[in-house]
């Protein structure tokens, strides 16, 4: 796909949507409660903020609509009974934010009085230091218009507060050795290995990554020693504000992979042979025991069932259980567990077909005399119905919208391909300077396939039709790629 042409098309679309927003935007210049109905909506809808940011607007300490700013001292009376209260400062929330190109986010302005009261419904004025990058209206609604950086400033009389904004298309990854979260700026063509610079490491031992609604969930494995349960789980990163928090799961040892549908994080316990269903809203977790010696790797939730790849790895003999096993946890029947025998050892990657009828199970083999194979599971009855003999040591897999599967090869420094409909194997795409290709993903912004390697210190871009590399960017120890596209 021609990336430049794609950017031009996106810019034209954003411009049309921007004019549509301006055409329906209310004339009021205050942060009214009704203006914040859904912060995650697209450009055609009015955005909103989280419930906790609306509380200040309902507070009895908020100024009345007819309150005015004192021209002499930039103060304002409020209705708290203290007629002499004056505004002494403003704040803007958040103070730092990433906005994907073409997405709307809302900033909240707050006036702080000298008696510690606050107000959010005053006639604030918002402005952008670079409207070509980010446009903002007086309700604080900001649209990421084009790649770049800008400041959003709120003013009231002589007082002001400023937030820094970065706009662009980003693909995120984690460095499995440096324990940092990286960001690949697709439009800018650069990668920053530490997206959370000046903050804590993303995890001691990151082992999995998922992005949902602008939040990155990084699996925190803690270490590779058994018995360290209670300190491991998820590191939660708000990608807009870069704020982090943690969610731990008791009795989950060495969590390895995560899949997050509908607000529930399904996390595999690599050393505890179990599966956690973690409710992200409450922090409550249900634990399900998997088959003995499962040593689970990847996990994929489909409907009421959760599929878990059991590698069966024995650290004492450095071998894998034969055959490999796919565990099927059915939450519609009290989390009952069934198993499916696979055609090869060491299943490591689970990918649903584009039509949702099949599950591709990538079996890596034993890195010696048993080689890569992909089983095709019919999801209507959870049976193996076909397969693809890839050879070598395949791992991470992704399916492009053109129906081609791209599979990272751990041994050859290349990306394997096959047709997910005919199951015919295609040519491999060699990655210069790579050996252990660890991860692949589809870049939704350009349509290219991205590949990262432990050893190549790069993220490569692959043309999914010509099946050749079309560029690369420097990045360290890329272990897992994940994208967030609105």
Structure description:
The chain has 486 residues and is mainly β. It has a domain at 3-167: Immunoglobulin-like, CATH 2.60.40. 6% of the residues lie in helices and 44% in strands. The chain has 2 helices and 40 strands. The strands form 11 sheets. A 4-stranded mixed beta sheet has the order 2-10-9-6, with no helix packed on it. A 4-stranded antiparallel beta sheet has the order 13-12-11-40, with no helix packed on it. A 4-stranded antiparallel beta sheet has the order 14-15-16-17, with no helix packed on it. Mean pLDDT is 82; it is low at 1-81.
CATH topology name of the domain at 3-167: Immunoglobulin-like
Query: How many separate helices?
Result: 2
What gap, in angstroms, lies between the N and C termini? 20 Å
Share of residues in helices? under 10%
């Amino acid at each position: 796909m021609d990336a430049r042409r794609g950017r031009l098309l996106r810019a034209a679309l954003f411009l049309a949507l921007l004019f549509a927003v301006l055409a329906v935007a209310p004339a009021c210049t205050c942060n009214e409660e009704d203006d914040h109905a859904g912060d995650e909506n697209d450009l055609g809808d009015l955005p909103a903020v989280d419930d906790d940011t609306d509380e200040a607007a309902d507070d009895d300490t908020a100024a009345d609509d007819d309150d005015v700013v004192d021209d002499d001292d930039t103060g304002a009376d409020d209705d708290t009974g203290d007629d002499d209260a004056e505004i002494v400062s403003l704040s803007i929330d958040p103070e730092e934010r990433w906005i994907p190109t073409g997405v709307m986010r809302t900033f909240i302005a707050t006036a702080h009085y000298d008696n510690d009261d606050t107000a959010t419904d005053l006639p604030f004025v918002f402005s952008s230091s670079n409207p070509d990058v980010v446009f903002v209206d007086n309700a604080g609604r900001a649209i990421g218009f084009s790649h770049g950086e800008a400041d959003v400033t709120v003013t009231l009389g002589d007082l002001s507060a400023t937030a820094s904004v970065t706009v662009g298309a980003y693909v995120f990854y984690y460095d499995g050795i440096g324990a940092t979260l990286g960001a690949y700026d697709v439009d800018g063509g650069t990668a920053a290995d530490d997206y959370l610079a000046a903050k804590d490491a993303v995890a001691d031992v990151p082992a999995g990554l998922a992005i949902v609604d602008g939040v990155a969930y990084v699996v925190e494995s803690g270490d590779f020693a058994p018995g360290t349960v209670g300190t491991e789980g998820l590191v939660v990163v708000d990608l807009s504000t870069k704020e982090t928090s943690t969610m731990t799961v008791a009795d989950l040892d060495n969590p390895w992979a995560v899949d997050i549908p509908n607000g529930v994080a399904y996390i595999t316990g690599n050393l505890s042979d179990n599966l956690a269903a973690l409710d992200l809203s409450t922090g409550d977790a249900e634990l399900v025991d998997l088959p003995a010696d499962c040593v689970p790797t990847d996990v994929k939730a489909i409907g009421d069932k959760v599929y878990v790849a059991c590698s069966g790895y024995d650290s004492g003999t450095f071998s894998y259980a034969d055959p490999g096993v796919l565990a099927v946890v059915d939450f519609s029947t009290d989390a009952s567990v069934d198993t499916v025998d696979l055609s090869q050892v060491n299943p490591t990657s689970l990918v649903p077909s584009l039509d949702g009828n099949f599950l591709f199970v990538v079996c890596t083999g034993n890195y010696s005399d048993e080689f890569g194979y992909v089983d095709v599971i019919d999801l209507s009855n959870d049976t193996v119905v076909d397969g693809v003999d890839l050879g070598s040591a395949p791992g991470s897999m992704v399916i492009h919208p053109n129906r081609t599967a791209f599979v990272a090869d751990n041994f050859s420094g290349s990306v394997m391909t096959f047709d997910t409909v005919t199951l015919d194997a295609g040519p491999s795409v060699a990655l210069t300077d790579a050996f252990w290709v660890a991860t692949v993903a589809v870049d939704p912004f350009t349509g290219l396939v991205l590949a990262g390697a432990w050893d190549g210190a790069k993220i490569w871009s692959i043309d999914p039709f010509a099946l050749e590399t079309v560029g690369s960017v420097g990045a360290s120890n890329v272990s897992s790629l994940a994208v967030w596209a609105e």
